Amino acid sequence: MFLGLLPLLTLPAYRQPTAPIADRVSDLVARMTPQEKARQLDMYAGAPLVQEKVDNTHAKPGTHASEPALEKALGNLGAGSIHDLYPQPALANEIQKWVIAHNRLGIPALFIEEGVHGYCGLNKTIFPCSINLAATFDTDLAGETAAAIAQEARADGVDMLLGPVLDVARDPRWGRVEEDFGEDPYLSGALGAAYVKAMQGESLDSDHSVISEPKHFAGHGEPESGLNAGPVHAGEREVRSVLLKSFQPAVEESHAKGIMAAYHDIDGVPCAGNAWLLTDVLRKEWGFQGFVLSDLGAIRELYDRHRVAPTQQDAILLALSSGVDMQFYDFDHNTYQNAIVDGVKTGKIPMSTLDRAVSRVLRMKFALGLFDHPFVDPTLTDQVNRSQIHLRVALDSARESMCLLKNEGNLLPLSKDLASIAVIGPNAATARMGDYTVTPQVAPPSIRDK
Predict the structure, then answer these.
(1) pTM higher than 0.90
(2) Which of 159, 167, 265, 295 is catalytic?
(3) Which of these, 139, 202, 203, 323, could form a disulfide with 194 (CB 3.0-4.6 Å)?
(4) What would the pLDDT profile of 271-306 be if each residue is shown by its tens digit?
(5) Is 36 left (phi over 0), alpha (psi -120 to 50) or beta?
């Protein structure tokens, strides 16, 4: 037995599968250069890394990785995460193999994609929008939906999904109401907790579970004038009693491992630079153990919209100090990574702050099992993608979300002998599946007609 373990014990601690994750993270961070650490906090677009793409966010089915593009973008430092790829499993494996082989410490990349009401890849199961799911008042159905979405995503090599949206929708003018669970913080919290728990499963180290990332933290659904990036006017009492109540169960009860920092401000303080929100409440009070990703542009907007940071570097370091661990296309890669490295070198930010953020990202990569078995089974996707079970869950959700209104007092101008109704307009013969969907799918007759 001892002789069998000897080869494992000669490996660095971070490469030992049986070592505690905390020890593996600590050992790996101690071996990393500042440049390697900064790289782990950066997100790269995936579509430019392949030979053929459908559009700027989706790789073409059957395509291969472009080694010149990978070399130019990633070099020998690897990648914190890769987004906007929506790979098939063979492509995910091909890119992951290249990333691991071409960085000094063999650190795998994290594949992150959208999955608000269905994994947003090509030809995947599309579920009713979140606002429809909320209308079911069914936490079990929320869990079944989330588990199905996670299963289809992980089978394609995706490790993390950006959802659910847990903002409390309190302004009907806000154009993203369909993405969340409505105006009630209790209902949103209950559905969100069930959703996160099912999406992450019993363990992240599986072939059917992913990191769930509730968004947009926090209060994004009550912007001034209903504008998506508008400020939120609320004091701490209202923030705690309403705007945070929809997120709290997902973190405290279901242990969400991702959080997206929003790009608006609350009472004048931008969320991406709000240490009270991202550190004091989220981590110290609620015990959050995952990592925080900025919403797209949230860190940059500390500099060019909110103007709370005099320089781009100051914006990057403010976000990092406040608790944002990874950027989302905020700045070009050189600007972002160099700002962090130079910030540590000049003493503007302590190395301990950088190590803290890097440790949070690496902890999730270890929890997902990416260091020990980084490749996905290419046969799994055919078993789970648009399966009869998933189509049935989508149909059940659609049926349960329908609300019938009684024609009280013959309010509607409809006679009892009405034979037909004309539906006119651009949506008359087109299925509108909502935001975060690709090509609309039609369920097979065996499912649709039952």
Answers:
(1) yes
(2) 295
(3) 139
(4) 999 999 999 999 999 999 999 999 999 999 999 999
(5) alpha
